[in-house]
Structures are given as structure tokens and as C-alpha cells.
TrEMBL record:
GO terms for molecular function: flavin adenine dinucleotide binding; oxidoreductase activity, acting on CH-OH group of donors. Residues 1-17 form the signal peptide. This is Glucose-methanol-choline oxidoreductase N-terminal domain-containing protein. InterPro entries: FAD/NAD-bd_sf (IPR036188), GMC_OxRdtase (IPR012132), GMC_OxRdtase_N (IPR000172), GMC_OxRtase_C (IPR007867). It comes from Thermothielavioides terrestris (strain ATCC 38088 / NRRL 8126) (Thielavia terrestris).
Length: 643
């Protein structure tokens, strides 16, 4: 009965939230207060999480969130009326970026999207709600060196895990669904009661077990739970969806709509935070926040009593800083901006997951029902699926989101003979001083950036040498659409890119230079991963189905040069996980923020979003964004309580 009631409430909220403005929703400057204790720039995944926690902890302190987008309904990645392939026509606005060509990847460009809406990328992402392995987050402490290791605030798996648990409410599937699909989980990895939900689908495509059996035949084992720090083998991964309605669970609902009304919490939409301003110098913070009204372009300042938190994301937080005169001084001068604070790490250190596919066809008939093609070819099936999704509880294909299955494999497991050469090559480039030559040209001579990059490469070498640390991800839900595919996600890239202001229009979207493949070791790992995935075609299950390889093919895979050309031609350069452009590192390692997330040298200014990660973890980023924000909120709350 409780679940049914919850479903009715959830559906009512979803139907009406976009058209029922909160009393705290602001659309023009005349509605704002004279001053705020806290201002958060960006109403996305992290920003709304911090806003929720601060307004709850300090009901007498006022808080303003400044958001470029507006409130929209955000359907799941696979909700009616879409099929498995086409985008949902009701999806909210999203920023779309095309990077500069990557010379080392055949001049391919990366296509990246980010949410342009209250809720940020949690409103538009693929809803795959996994976490990295413990080794990913322990690497953050490693690259911070002794300065960070001796800090009173530490960032590693042990200190972040409680916030992963706090940030989400996990609901196990019903016994019959769990038995039908052999779902496994461990409740000790969860335990929160935040209205950000994670759950498994009540449906899987009929051929989902094909790859599960294939991976087993390749020697991989099923893991009971992959969210508790140990992440190897074949994993079930929950989706960020309501356990009853199966609709998208995201930060606008869980950290804004569900916590209103709060008299101290204002949200200003359709406004761009242009920059932060220090009228009396960097030591005189907090700064003012200069805001632009999108309707007419007018500018005004928001006065802040306590502090400013930048949560505009890995692609926009650097631009706010750069417009403020905080960033690489040479670049700022070239942009006509007077440098206020020389931090070369601002907009540097850009990382993302990338990878090519292994593809095949089946030459023998197979009888699986249903498959995704039914959504496009069978009107009755699609109508039944829509009715099932709108039932209480939701059921059927539309509850699947993007899928719940993935494998995670370490480099030693994939390439037991060759991984030591890869690891040695990384360590050698640090030892002989050549590593900095793979940085962007304007950063190669910067000692701090070189030192930070060296530290990252050594940490990546340790990850790649660790048989318990995955370096490959392959998610799947079916082998049918658009054709049989196993994707090769490079989880720990060595190449580093940049996010820079558009010199012709600093208020426009930034210029992304991914520089994928600029460190040649990335290609060596790509080759090892593709060769490993090709092994699936020789398994008994695939032979029984008459699997015939399409790409790369045996002749191509036999040659390093030909296989590298295949990677360059077929690679997807962004799986929409950009990060690390305002890294949490010491200043003498190119860092932008310290462990307390305060910007080095700028009073009253912190950053809380995926730009602060020093290294990209081997995971989709949504769950990490929530956990980082939860920990950051605690850091801020404790600091103000001490005052």
C-alpha cells in the first residue's frame, strides 16, 4: 500500500512540477533579496545537492542558486514515446559541444552534451548509476601528495564511501523480478534515505543473457555487488529511477522540488553567472557575483555575505573563472582579460572516457523475443509497453532506461603478457622527464602543471598494474540494436585537453580541445582492450549463433598499425563524462582547489562539481557527482558551524 501511495504522489509531482512554480522560483532581479549568505552558481547535480544541505542546516541563512536554464519535465532516457534508438522529443534542453579536431585521432571531434536545465546533466544523462572502484578514489589522495595526505580533510574511497551511501536510496527488486533476471546486490553498499533513487528494471531484453553467458565463457565472474568499492567482472548496475514509477530520478526533484518550501532558498532561472568580482582584492572575499539576464542581456551584481560556490560543471566552471581573471595568465592576456590570479590549472586537465566498438553479425537464425526492433516494427507491442509503463508499479520495456549490465576488466586480466610494457612506458616518461611534452603546448613549460601530470601518470600506472582495478568497461543491454556491439571504454586516459573561453565571444560556449590520443600510451591500451573484446567471438555461445566479426576483423587486429587506424576511424571520443578542469591538487601541482574545495588564493570562493576531480574515475559520473557534493556540503557546514 505504501508503494502505491508513493507512486500516486510521484506521478502527480511529475505531472505538475514543471507548471507549478515554487514561491522561491525567481525570474528577475527585482524578486531577489538585497544580500545572500550563500550563492551557488549552477543548479545542476552538485549545485542543488549542496543547496539542499546548506538551507536545511542553516535555516536562518539565505541562499541563492543562479541557473542558466529553466524548470522542465525530464523524461528517462527510454520513456514513451521513444523507441530504443531515437531521442525522446520531450527531453529538456542540453548544451551541445563539438570539440576541436584531434590530430592524433584522425582529426575526429568529440561530441559532448550537458544539461541546460534545472537539474543539470542528471536530467539528461543515460541514468547508468554506477560508482568507481575504491582504487579510483584512492588515486585522488595519491596524486595530492604529502600536502593533501596531511590535510585534516582527505579524499579517498574510505572517506567518500559514506557519502555515496548517504546520497541515494536504493530499492531492491521484488523477489520474482530478482529471480527472473538473476539480479544480485548487497545492501551494505547503500543505506541512505535521500530522495535520489536507484533501482533495477523490471525488464530485460530477451538476448541480454547472450553476452552475460559469453563473458562467463571468457573467464569473467559475476560479482554480487559492484558499488561497494570492489568492481570486477560482470556487474549489475542500478539506474537512477524511481522504484515504483521507473521515471528518472534526478537532482531537481530530489534536492529542490521535494524539499520545498524553504523560506531561505531562492532559485533564479534563465540567468547566466558571468564572473565573480573582487572589488577590494582577492583577500577580501567573498566576491560579488555578476549575473546576466538572458532576456535582455542586462548585468547586475549579487552581494554575498558568506561564500560563493561554483557548481557550473566541468565545462562551464572554468569559463566563469576565466572571465573573472582567474586562470592561465598568458591565455587571459590573449583574451583581453586582466589576470587577477594566475592558476594555469583552470580549464586544463580535461579528461573523458572514449573508445571504439567491436561489432559482429549473426549468420544463424535465432529466436529471441522481445528485442528492441519490436518497438519500431510492432505497434501492438509498443502500445502494450506504454500501458505497462504507466501502470502502478511500472513494468515492461520502458522501465529499462539504458540498461543494467556491464563488465569491468583490469589490464593485467586483458593482456597478461603486455601490460607490464605499458606500465613501464608510463613510468619511464615520468622518470626521463618527457611526460610534460604530451601536455598542451602552452602548459609544457609550467613546472606546476608538469609536476601534477607526472603525479597523475604514476597513479595511472599503478591502476593499470593492479589486477583488481578495472581499466575497461563494456556496458550492454542487448546485442541487436543498432547492430551487435561491444563498446570498449578507456577508463583511465593519459591524454589531457583544455576548456578555454571563446576569444571572439567570451559569453558564448567555451572551446573544447580534447587532444585525445596525444599521449601515445592511450593507443596501446585501446589496442589491448579491442583485442580482448574480440575474444568474445570465439566463445561457444557466439559460435553457436554463427557470429561473424564486422569490425575490426582478424586481418586488421593482427597488425598494430591497422588496428590503430581502426581505433582512430571508429572511436567515440566522448561518452559524456568530462571532468577535472579545476582539479583538487596542491597549487605546486597545478591545482585549482584544496581539499576543502576553496580556490587557491581566492577568499570566499569554492568549487563543487566534477571539475574538482584530479583524475577521471572508471565510472559514469552521476553517482560520484552526488557523493562529492554531499561531502562538500558537510565540509562547508562544519566550517560555518566552527565560526
Amino acid at each position: 500500500m505504501r508503494l502505491v501511495a508513493a507512486a500516486v504522489l510521484s506521478l502527480a509531482a511529475l505531472a505538475g512540477a514543471a507548471r507549478r512554480p515554487s514561491a522561491n522560483l525567481k525570474r528577475q532581479v527585482s524578486q531577489l533579496r538585497d544580500k545572500y549568505d550563500f550563492v551557488i552558481v549552477g543548479g545542476g547535480t552538485s549545485g542543488l545537492t549542496v543547496a539542499d544541505r546548506l538551507t536545511a542546516a542553516f535555516p536562518a541563512k539565505t541562499l541563492l542558486v543562479v541557473e542558466y536554464g529553466d524548470i522542465h519535465y525530464a523524461p528517462g532516457v527510454f520513456d514513451p514515446p521513444t523507441d530504443w534508438i531515437t531521442a525522446n522529443p520531450d527531453s529538456p534542453p542540453a548544451w551541445s559541444f563539438t570539440s576541436l579536431p584531434c590530430p592524433d585521432m584522425g582529426n575526429q571531434t568529440a561530441f559532448v552534451q550537458a544539461g541546460q536545465v534545472v537539474g543539470g546533466s542528471s536530467a539528461v544523462n543515460g541514468m547508468f548509476f554506477d560508482r568507481g572502484s575504491r582504487f579510483d578514489y584512492d588515486a585522488w589522495a595519491e596524486v595530492g601528495g604529502p600536502e593533501f595526505a596531511n590535510s585534516s580533510t582527505t579524499w579517498n574511497w574510505d572517506t567518500l564511501f559514506p557519502y555515496f551511501k548517504k546520497s541515494v536510496t536504493f530499492t531492491p527488486p521484488s523477489p520474482d523480478i530478482a529471480q527472473r533476471y538473476n539480479y544480485t546486490w548487497n545492501l551494505s553498499a547503500y543505506g541512505g534515505d535521500t530522495p535520489i533513487y536507484a533501482s533495477f528494471s523490471s525488464f530485460q531484453w530477451a538476448d541480454q543473457p547472450v553476452l552475460a553467458k559469453t563473458w562467463t565463457e571468457m573467464g569473467l565472474e559475476h560479482a554480487q555487488e559492484c558499488a561497494g568499492g570492489d568492481k570486477q567482472g560482470i556487474c549489475w548496475v542500478p539506474a537512477s529511477q524511481d522504484p515504483v514509477t521507473a521515471r528518472r530520478s534526478y537532482s531537481r526533484l530530489g534536492h529542490y522540488t521535494d524539499v520545498q518550501p524553504r523560506a531561505n532558498y531562492d532559485l533564479l532561472v534563465n540567468h547566466q553567472a558571468v564572473r565573480v568580482v573582487y572589488p577590494n582584492g582577492l583577500a577580501s572575499g567573498p566576491p560579488l557575483v555578476e549575473v546576466r539576464t538572458l532576456a535582455d542581456g542586462s548585468l547586475f551584481n549579487v552581494t554575498v555575505r558568506g561564500e560563493v560556490v561554483l557548481s557550473a560543471g566541468a565545462l562551464h566552471t572554468p569559463t566563469v573563472l576565466q572571465r573573472s581573471g582567474i586562470g592561465p595568465s598568458a591565455f587571459l592576456t590573449s583574451a583581453g582579460i586582466r589576470p587577477l590570479l594566475d592558476l594555469p590549472g583552470v580549464g586544463s586537465n580535461l579528461q573523458d572516457h572514449s573508445g571504439p566498438p567491436v561489432t559482429w553479425n549473426y549468420s544463424k537464425p535465432y529466436d529471441f523475443f522481445p528485442l528492441p526492433s519490436e518497438m519500431a516494427s510492432n505497434a501492438t507491442f509498443k502500445a502494450d509497453a506504454t500501458a505497462a509503463f504507466n501502470a502502478t508499479p511500472a513494468r515492461g520495456p520502458y522501465t529499462l532506461a539504458g540498461g543494467n549490465s556491464a563488465i569491468y576488466v583490469s589490464l593485467p586480466r586483458m593482456d597478461p603478457d603486455g601490460y607490464t610494457t605499458i606500465v613501464s612506458d608510463i613510468r619511464a616518461m615520468v622518470a626521463n622527464g618527457s611526460a610534460a611534452s604530451f601536455l598542451p603546448a602552452d602548459l609544457r613549460g609550467d613546472r606546476a602543471m608538469a609536476a601534477g601530470y607526472d603525479a597523475q601518470l604514476l597513479a595511472i600506472a599503478n591502476l593499470l598494474a593492479n589486477p583488481a582495478a578495472p581499466s575497461l568497461e563494456t556496458p550492454w543491454a542487448t546485442t541487436e540494436v543498432p547492430y551487435a556491439t561491444a563498446w570498449s571504454f578507456l577508463l583511465h586516459p593519459l591524454s589531457r585537453g583544455t576548456v578555454r573561453l571563446n576569444l571572439s565571444d567570451p559569453l558564448a560556449q567555451p572551446v573544447l580541445d580534447y587532444r585525445a590520443g596525444s599521449n601515445p600510451v592511450d593507443m596501446a591500451v585501446h589496442l589491448a582492450q579491442v583485442r580482448f573484446l574480440r575474444g568474445l567471438l570465439g566463445t561457444p555461445t557466439m559460435r553457436a549463433l554463427g557470429a561473424v566479426e564486422v569490425g575490426p576483423g582478424a586481418a586488421v587486429a593482427a597488425s598494430d598499425a591497422l588496428l590503430a587506424d581502426y581505433v582512430r576511424q571508429q572511436i567515440t571520443l566522448s561518452f559524456m563524462h568530462p571532468c577535472c578542469t579545476a582539479a583538487m591538487l596542491p597549487r605546486d601541482r597545478g591545482g585549482v582547489v584544496g581539499p576543502d574545495l576553496r580556490v587557491h588564493g581566492a577568499a570566499g570562493l569554492r568549487i563543487v562539481d566534477m571539475s574538482v576531480m584530479p583524475m577521471l574515475p572508471g565510472t559514469h559520473l552521476s553517482a560520484t557527482a552526488y557523493a562529492v557534493a554531499e561531502k562538500a556540503a558537510d565540509i562547508i557546514i562544519q566550517a560555518w558551524r566552527r565560526q
